[in-house]
């Protein structure tokens, strides 16, 4: 090989090495510190390596000059730029041209034209900046590393610590960049990663249109943490309330408690006040209280107060308080925003302390029950249970014998008040109810004879004088002997080998016959009615019925079951109040194959040997006895009769997204339907449907408490219908409609139509709602809510009042 040839080969190899991208690794020492002083927060741990990549590089002592596709890898961060000057001794880097800083535990992504940044202290300054926090880009895919992704842009951004940014002359948003749908344009914003962004002198904009000025605002960044402050104002309109303006204050008392207090001004009616308090003093206790009141110019004002608490105490005791106060039924009809609550005339309060051990149950409680009979003031039935004690047991074996025994007993004071009847403030009642039974089995047959003694002592009795009920101090002791024989033949079953729609079916038939006799209740007209313990009457009856069950077990996979996607993102956990984000619905019938009950149908009837129930039945009146309530739940006794109505209870549950239930009571004596209740709920992916129908005949007298009050109708025939597409968190459009129709009076009681459109970071919901509740309320409401991700909602459509 000639000298000239060797020279050319050497030159080519050297030129090739100059074109390659060199990699330098520098072992950066820790920052010097004075004796006894700890390294500054964010300083590099000793031995952390820095990897430098660039097309061109120069080194002078500890200083590197890097040019062309520069990359500096340090820990979880990557600093990229066209040109970087890096001092390995101090960790200081000066970058210019297409500067990008990425990585870290919060997935920071910062783009700038120029930056000075210290790799060790994670501090620096960036110019002409746009950035995101909590969004990790992998090719074309986006992975959220926080529940609240956050974007910002500014003329200058300072990073004063590993988790702290200061944005000057810029904007912040939760929307996709570079053209966000909403943003806060601010002179200065201080961002604490995984905490909040404090925004000063900002203008809230929708697209590029200024909407509102905020001297100060806060925006969550990272996990949602509660902060005290003013909430987003509410405003709207109503045909009865007029223009609605409101504001609320939120107080994060501590980690386990918070409160909200606010008020609304109604131009046509007056003022409304509301408050809410929540607390979790411990993992096994909770407290919730709410207040809602109205100062009304049309004399329909009132208050609704609720208190709910639960706690577990030493030695296995559990305490619960559920207290409710309603000043008037007119107030509820006039101002409650949901139809089901507005027409509910009952107010229940109860508190108890309970404990169970070895099949024994102890319960000490106090309760108040109110039922508003009409909108007339004072037309209300109030029943008090003073502090009372109950002790009961499950079936217990009597020694080594085959006999089982159980006990149910109570001791307490009660009172009842209504316009035409009133007891003393304290009526004593003691009830003891021991039972013994002997279960027997023979060749698939089950026999259960049972005998029970019941004694109930009252310190007062009611008497009928001149057609008017009153009470006397004379005590009454009700004694009863109860005998029961329950016979259950062997269940009949068949398995169908041929699959139906990919599932194997099993049909089971379970007949039963029960004879019951109660005797000794000879003072039924003298018993004051407080609760279910007071309606026991003599009876001799036989109940016969059959239950049919269909079970299904899938043997073939559904062809339309999709493969479950692998979802990467944040791990959601319950917050301190037990609330969780809404998750997507599971696919119907796509789980593992297991037998489940899909159809249950029960048909039963009673035959009464004692037609007048030992003289307790009053002909022509509505009579409510234990035997009728336990069987049908609907009063049907208005005259002596042998046969009860035939009850039918049908439930179909095809899967987790389909549920059908129909209760029917047919009276063969009157040749009519006494009651019919149907419920249908169905969902197919984004589409959902709900339907209910309630038909009821109220036999006997029409109850009118106060002269001048409106009589109660003897027939109810009402329909409810709900249909919609989507859900509150669905991207794009979702819509739903809900109506309530009274077929007996032929008028629309209630109607609502709601539509929602969600973008990537905000959503708009609009709703029309109508109430027609007699003379008390005839109202059209127009409500809306403009929701900002991680911020709140403008408008007056509250989450708990939405259709879906």
Description of the structure:
The chain is mainly β. Helices cover 4% and strands 60% of the residues. A hairpin with a 2-residue loop joins strand 36 and strand 37. The N terminus is likely disordered.
Write out key terms for the chains shown.
26-stranded antiparallel barrel, 804 residues, single chain, 4 helices, 49 strands, 13-stranded antiparallel sheet, mainly beta, disordered N terminus
Describe the protein's topology.
Blueprint lengths: L2 H17 L3 E5 L21 E5 L2 E5 L2 E12 L2 E11 L4 E12 L4 E11 L4 E11 L1 E4 L2 E4 L5 E12 L2 E10 L8 E11 L3 E11 L2 E12 L8 E2 L3 E5 L3 E13 L2 E10 L3 E13 L2 E12 L5 E11 L5 E9 L2 H7 L3 H4 L3 E12 L2 E13 L7 E14 L2 E2 L6 E15 L2 E2 L4 E11 L2 E3 L2 E14 L2 E5 L2 E5 L3 E13 L3 E9 L2 E17 L19 E16 L41 E13 L17 H6 L14 E10 L2 E10 L4 E13 L2 E11 L17 E11 L6 E11 L4 E12 L3 E12 L3 E12 L3 E4 L9
Antiparallel strand pairs: 1-2, 2-4, 3-4, 4-5, 5-6, 6-7, 7-8, 8-11, 9-10, 11-12, 12-13, 13-14, 14-15, 16-18, 17-18, 17-48, 18-19, 19-20, 20-21, 21-22, 22-23, 23-24, 24-25, 25-26, 26-28, 27-28, 28-29, 28-30, 30-32, 31-32, 32-35, 33-34, 35-37, 36-37, 37-38, 38-39, 39-40, 40-41, 41-42, 42-43, ...
């Amino acid at each position: 090989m000639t000298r000239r040839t060797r020279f050319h080969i050497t030159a080519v190899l050297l030129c090739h090495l100059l074109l390659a991208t060199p990699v330098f690794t520098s072992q950066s020492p820790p920052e010097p510190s004075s004796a006894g002083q700890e390294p500054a927060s964010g300083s590099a741990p000793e031995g952390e390596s820095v990897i430098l990549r660039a097309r061109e590089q120069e080194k002078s002592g500890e200083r590197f000059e890097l040019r062309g596709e520069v990359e500096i890898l340090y820990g979880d961060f990557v600093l990229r730029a066209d040109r970087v000057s890096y001092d390995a001794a101090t960790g200081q880097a000066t970058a210019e041209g297409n500067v990008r800083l990425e990585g870290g535990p919060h997935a920071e992504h910062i783009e700038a034209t120029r930056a000075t940044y210290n790799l060790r202290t994670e501090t620096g300054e960036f110019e002409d900046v746009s950035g995101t926090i909590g969004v990790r880009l992998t090719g074309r895919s986006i992975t959220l590393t926080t529940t609240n992704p956050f974007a910002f842009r500014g003329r200058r951004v300072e990073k004063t610590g590993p988790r702290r940014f200061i944005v000057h002359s810029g904007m912040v948003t939760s929307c996709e960049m570079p053209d966000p749908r909403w943003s806060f344009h601010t002179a200065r914003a201080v961002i604490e990663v995984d905490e909040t962004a404090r925004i000063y002198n900002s203008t809230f904009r929708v697209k590029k249109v200024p909407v509102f000025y905020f001297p100060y605002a806060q925006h969550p960044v990272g996990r949602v943490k509660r902060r005290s402050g003013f909430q987003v104002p509410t405003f709207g309109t109503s045909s009865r309330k007029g223009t609605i303006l409101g504001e609320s204050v939120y107080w994060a008392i501590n980690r386990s408690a918070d409160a909200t207090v606010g008020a609304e001004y109604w131009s046509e009616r007056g003022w409304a006040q509301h408050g809410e308090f929540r607390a979790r003093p411990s993992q096994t206790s909770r407290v919730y209280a709410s207040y809602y009141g109205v100062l009304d110019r049309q004399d329909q004002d009132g208050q609704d107060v609720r208190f709910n608490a639960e706690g577990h105490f030493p030695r296995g005791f559990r305490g619960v308080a559920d207290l409710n106060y309603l000043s008037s039924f007119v107030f509820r009809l006039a101002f409650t925003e949901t139809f089901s609550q507005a027409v509910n005339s009952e107010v229940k309060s109860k508190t108890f302390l309970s404990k169970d051990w070895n099949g024994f149950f102890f319960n000490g409680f106090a309760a108040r029950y109110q039922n508003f009979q009409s909108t007339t003031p004072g037309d209300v039935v109030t029943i008090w249970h003073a502090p009372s004690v109950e002790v009961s047991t499950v079936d217990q074996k009597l020694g080594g014998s085959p006999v089982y025994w159980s006990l149910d007993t109570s001791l307490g004071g009660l009172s009842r008040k209504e316009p035409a009847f009133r007891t003393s403030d304290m009526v004593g009642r003691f009830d003891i109810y021991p039972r013994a039974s002997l279960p027997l089995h023979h060749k698939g047959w089950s026999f259960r004879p049972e005998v029970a003694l019941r004694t109930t002592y009252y310190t007062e009795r009611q008497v009928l004088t001149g057609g008017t009920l009153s009470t006397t101090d004379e005590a009454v002791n009700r004694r009863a002997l109860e005998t029961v024989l329950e016979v259950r033949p062997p269940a009949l079953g068949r398995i169908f080998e041929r699959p139906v729609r990919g599932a194997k079916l099993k049909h089971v038939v379970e007949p039963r016959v029960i004879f019951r006799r109660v005797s000794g209740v000879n003072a039924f007209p003298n018993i004051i009615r407080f609760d279910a313990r007071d309606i026991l009457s003599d009876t001799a009856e036989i109940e016969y019925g059959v239950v049919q069950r269909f079970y299904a077990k899938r043997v073939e996979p559904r062809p339309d079951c999709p493969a479950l996607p692998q979802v990467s993102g944040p791990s959601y956990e319950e917050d301190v109040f037990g609330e969780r984000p809404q998750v997507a619905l599971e696919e119907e019938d796509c789980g593992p194959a297991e037998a489940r009950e899909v159809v249950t149908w029960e048909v039963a009837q009673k035959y009464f040997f004692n037609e007048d129930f030992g003289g307790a039945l009053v002909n022509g009146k509505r009579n409510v006895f234990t035997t009728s309530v336990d069987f049908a739940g609907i009063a049907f006794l208005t005259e002596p009769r042998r046969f009860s109505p035939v009850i039918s209870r049908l439930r179909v549950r095809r899967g987790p997204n389909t549920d059908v239930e129909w209760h029917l009571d047919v009276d063969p004596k009157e040749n009519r339907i006494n009651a019919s209740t149907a419920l249908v709920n169905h969902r197919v992916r984004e589409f959902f449907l709900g339907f209910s129908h309630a038909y009821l005949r109220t036999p006997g007298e029409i109850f009118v408490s106060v002269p001048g009050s409106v009589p109660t109708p003897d027939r109810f025939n009402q329909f409810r219908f709900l249909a919609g597409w989507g859900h509150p968190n669905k991207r794009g459009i979702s819509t739903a409609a809900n109506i309530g129709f009274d077929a007996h009076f032929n008028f629309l009681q209630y109607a609502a139509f709601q539509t929602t459109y969600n973008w990537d970071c905000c959503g708009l919901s609009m709703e029309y709602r109508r109430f027609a509740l007699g003379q008390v309320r005839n109202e059209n409401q127009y409500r809306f809510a403009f929701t900002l991700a991680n911020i709140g909602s403008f408008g007056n459509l509250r989450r708990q009042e939405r259709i879906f």
